[in-house]
Amino acid sequence: MTAALRFDILTLFPGMFDSPLDSSLLRRARERGIIDVRVHDIRQFAVDRHRVTDDAPYGGGGGMVMKVEPIDRALASLDIEEGTPVILLTPQGETFNQPLARELASHRRIVMICGHYEGVDERVRLYLVNREISIGDYILTGGEPAALVVMDAVSRLVPGFLGNEDSSRDDSFMEGLLEYPQYTRPAEYRGWRVPEVLLSGNHREIIAWRRSESIRRTRERRPDLWARLAEKGEVDS
After folding, report:
1. Under 8 Å CB-to-CB from 98, ≥6 apart: which residues?
2. Per-residue DSSP letters for 207-218?
3. What is the pTM of this model?
4. Residue range of the domain that includes 34
5. Is 156 a catalytic residue?
6. Fewer CB in 10 Å around end: N or C, the chain?
7. Which of 132, 155, 178 is the last residue in one of the domains?
8. 118 catalytic, yes or no?
9. Do 175 and 112 share a domain, yes or no?
């Protein structure tokens, strides 16, 4: 059996991961040894009596900044192999997307640091991580939801995570296009009918229809994606 993809998550609030990791496909994948998730409490690596992990910023300003020492000690305790992505989740990072999820899924271990407050001491960025990732242009109260997003998106690309491997191949963004419309029984409800082509049994026509719908949806809903595909010559502009 292939070794599990291991996630190490450094956080001030480990309880935020309890319910998501104990639910749905993430729980099943952990039970089957497909992924291995280890959540580490940064407070356990603070050395003072009160387990302080933040302090006021040099130069003044509002809010608090996460200290570098507890994060450094937490990372040092993990015996991280060379080449392992050590990720700081931050609004200043590269935007997370499907190609990046595929790249991360090629690794056997991923370390993620969840920021909080006004962020982390800049020395974490300069000396302790090799990647910064943002899940979008908005501000969260902390990096924990972002860590869950990254873990979920990457995990579903690991062989065996999904019951049907075709599911991930047809997902939105896998070919740069949005996914085609999906229907299930009944074939008619309140006069709303499923497109006849999906009921025809003609697989060639179904494939053509799905491709056409993916193209139409992408062009209408995500002109930014459409422009990138057209630039690369993958669709007609």
Report:
1. 153, 171, 172, 173, 174
2. HHHHHHHHHHHH
3. 0.89
4. 5-155
5. yes
6. N
7. 155
8. yes
9. no
How many CB atoms neighbour CB 60 within 10 A?
6
* CATH value at residue 66: 3.40.1280.10
Candidate list 41, 171, 175, 179, residue with the active-site label:
171
17 confidence band (pLDDT: 50, 70, 90): very high
Do the beta carbons of residue 197 and residue 181 sit within 8 Å? Answer: no
% pLDDT > 70, the chain: 94
Is 91 annotated as catalytic? Answer: yes
Are both 56 and 101 inside the same structural domain? Answer: yes
- Predicted confidence (pLDDT) at residue 137 exceeds the cutoff of 70: yes
Q: Give how far Cα 195 sits from Cα of 166, 179, 186, Å.
A: 22, 16, 12
Domain co-membership, 114 together with 221 = no
Which tens digits make up the pLDDT trace of 169-196?
555 555 789 999 999 999 999 999 999 9
Per-residue tokens: 60? 């003044």
